[in-house]
Amino acid sequence: MTDTTSETQSNAETNGHSAPPPGEHELHGKAEAHAANGNGGGHGHSQYPHLAHHFDSPQQQFDAGKLGIWLFLVQEVLFFAGLFCAYTVYRAQHPEIFVYAHYHLDTTMGAVNTCVLLVSSLTAAWAVRNAQLGEKNKLVINISITILCAFVFLGVKYKEYAHKVHEGTLWGHHFNPQHELWELDTFKSKHPESAKLAEKIAAIQFEGQAKRNPHGEHQGSGAEANAPGPTTPSLPGATAGAADSDTKVRRIQSLLLQASDETLHPLVAAGIIKHNIQATTGLERPATAHIFFGIYFFMTGLHGIHVIAGIIVWIWMLLKAQRGQFGPNYFGPIDYAALYWHLVDLVWIYLFPLLYLIH
Amino acid sequence: MATTTTTDFVSPEPSTTDNYLNNEKGLLSWLLTLDHKRIGVMYLFSVLASFALGGTFALLIRAELWTPGPTLPGVTADMYNQFFTLHGAIMVFLVIIPGIPAALGNIILPLQLGAKDVAFPRLNLMSYHVWILGACFMLLSLVLGAADTGWTFYTPYSTMTETAVIPAAFGAFVLGFSSIFTGLNFIVTIHKLRPKGMTWFRMPLFVWALYSTALIQVLATPVIAITLLMLIVERTFGIGIFDPALGGDPVLFEHFFWFYSHPAVYIMIVPAFGVISEIIPVFSRKPIFGYKFIALSSVAIAILGFLVWGHHMFTSGQSVLAGTIFSAITFLIAIPTAIKTFNWISTMYKGRIHLETPMLYALAFLWVFTIGGVTGMFLAVMSVDVHLHDTYFVVAHFHYVMMGGSITAFLGGLHYWWPKAFGRMYNEQLGRLSALVVFVGLNLTFFPQFILGSRGMPRRYYNYLEEFEGLHQLSTVGAFLLGIGFLLTAYGLLSSLRKKFDAPANPWGATTLEWQTASPPPYYNFATPPEVTQGPYDGYENLEYDEKIRGYVPTKA
């Protein structure tokens, strides 16, 4: 800071950035309040310890930060947009796998997490007001609640992930569900008749097989992955004679023909039986059902990373708040952190219905 | 029309002490600096080093193509695939995208705007550090068995190949954030840090161009980021989004990729338009013709650029209707581009043209960019594109635009702002000679490729039919001539750094704000903060040449 070319203090009137009218948040300090100095170095800003040298007033600094964070959020939206676009494409191409797969998700947990994030958004917004009014203690409490909520969210998410690992409802080659659709409580409670029908069909279809072997099936589907095609849970055993399988198909057909449309519809929508009832020879898992879980884990995982980033930001804000740095002249960082947090919340508000609440 | 600039000329004499280059010393004073000019200088030398590396791969490619069969001992077809992949990835992600905005833009934008710095100096430094991190991953890919997918990382090959795709893709992912941060910083700087009197339509056209570029950087780059992330996750975990073996859709990758990468070509060329818009009026001593048209056509190109990605995919199985729409919008882009070209030519008309090095590059730009742009229109025709797709015609087209357009303008801008950034005048005769060699080399390298492509020579091939040998050899000779041209340029510029500061504040007789502070500028840019009362290209008549300082000073009343 040894610039000697600016000995002369310039006239504050020509040099000051004309002070914009104070916005909704009143920032004290106008351009003329400090003697702007060509070589800056900060000493011209002694009145505002948090004012960077290249800004003329706290208002200008705040406005710049606000525009910056909004642009960052635009960038974030477009970042997630790629995934939402992939979701749209696959849902349009394979609606049945989304219907099938959402029964594997726990709506209650998703709803709990939605509430948790909404509460944290409220406390984040409240924290901004606390910072503006310089209410240090309330600010610390509100930031702490926000961080707590973020941890609760991640905890619930961890439980959900652990359950999916246990159930084998994972992506790609790791997709190996331990329970078929008609065995899931979520499906049974919603469509009891359909579940009973599917159980009857399964009993016929897998008759003579000591026990369905999901692991064996999985390896089969993995090895056959190079040949795109429906991955069936288990076709009638190869050891069974042709005549035997003909009988099975006839028994399955008669069950299907007796069933009402209301009973069949949930199974057709989930891709468990074919649209064309006459062509259905048994139950099958919709092809590429694993793609749903690929998208599910990618989207919620990326969102989770954003939650973790948010926790880091809020801890940083907490440390600054405890030192009493925020007040009417300096509350930008809390405002920006809250805006980011609202976006993280908003992404979840879209993810929850798109992944959990499919009809 | 105001006839005087209200800003005082600081000192017409070269500034020898207390400028941004020597006010602090030591390596850390550079690596941790928050000064936009120093960050720009670091970007500049990093970009030039990458350019040398990418250029080396280009020469290896051209040398290998000297004969129809294997040419260089030890270079296999697989290695050749890695060469062109690295050449493309380095040139696109490490050289052209950051070249003008992050290097020249960082040095010049706040000066031209009359600001003390960019809005977020720490973010600016972080963008450079992130860039270095991304470059390290790119180099890591080189060491671990370079990717051989082409710079486009097309699936499904990129999910199958054994080469190090992940480090290269992750490098490009990281570099994307560097680009986003720079763009974000520039947008906020332009919105919030304009000094008194600097209205939108008094901003220099380089600033307008950087503004349009920054919009694309912020809006398009996140899409490539998520796409590359999906590719990495696809390779690592096999989630099946792009892998047809798992029921995924590889064409979706192409859509995502080009949704970014077509706007990205405007990240590469729009700043070049800005540089040319600065050089031409100064060296014609005439205010720019059609200022508002040039300014707003940059914005128009930025917007239209988002709507044409499908023209890369005419042969990828997209519907004819979609192809027709993409083709039509592609034609629309010719309009704002032609507006610029006609305005530049009109600016020169009846001007007093001074053929100094930056102007030679600007004239070269007009020539090669016109060829590159018009051949782009050939490729926008769907039926013609089916024939020319993936041939050397495409290679020649985008090299005329990227190399002939962006790099020529980058070199022009580098020569134009070199005295301002480093405070030294380079050897003018050597500068002119190297500009000439670059121009001849460029045309000799790439013009034969138009002929090769239209006759059916496919791109990315290691071997070729014997009938193509003559044209390939012409192209190779041109490439080495181009290499010599760049070495001459580098020598001319770098050798000036050994001299003492000798550049005047305003060596070219320019009227924009950066020339009204010392060369090199003081740490805080302006001795007295500027107040702007007139347009950026007004007042050439009020400057006169001073023999003593070898620069321009305001005419004494």
Description:
The complex is a heterodimer of chains A (359) and B (557). Chain A is mainly α. Chain A is 62% helix and 0% strand. Chain A is built from twelve helices and no strands. Chain B has one domain (35-554): Cytochrome c oxidase-like, subunit I domain (Cytochrome C Oxidase, Chain A, Up-down Bundle). Chain B has helices at 27-31, 36-64, 77-113, 121-143, 157-160, 165-192, 205-237, 250-284, 291-304, 320-348, 357-380, 382-388, 392-422, 428-454, 469-496; strands at 543-546, 551-554. Chain B has a two-stranded antiparallel sheet. In chain B, helix 3 packs across helix 8 (250-284), helix 7 packs parallel to helix 9 (291-304) and helix 14 runs antiparallel to helix 15 (469-496). The longest helix of chain B has 37 residues, at 77-113. Mean pLDDT of chain B is 92; it is low at 1-15. At the A-B interface, helix 2 and helix 11 of A face helix 6 and helix 7 of B.
CATH class of chain B: Mainly Alpha
Number of domains of chain B: 1
User: Per DSSP, what share of the residues of chain B sits in E-state strands of 2 or more residues?
Assistant: under 5%
The ordered H/E elements of chain B are HHHHHHHHHHHHHHHEE
Q: How many beta-strand segments of chain A? A: 0
Mean pLDDT of chain B: 92
Number of E strands of chain B: 2
Give the low-pLDDT segments of chain B: 1-15
Give the N-terminus to C-terminus distance of chain B in angstroms: 17 Å
Radius of gyration of chain A: 30 Å
Average predicted confidence as pLDDT of chain A: 80
The greatest inter-chain interface is formed by: A-B, 57 and 58 residues
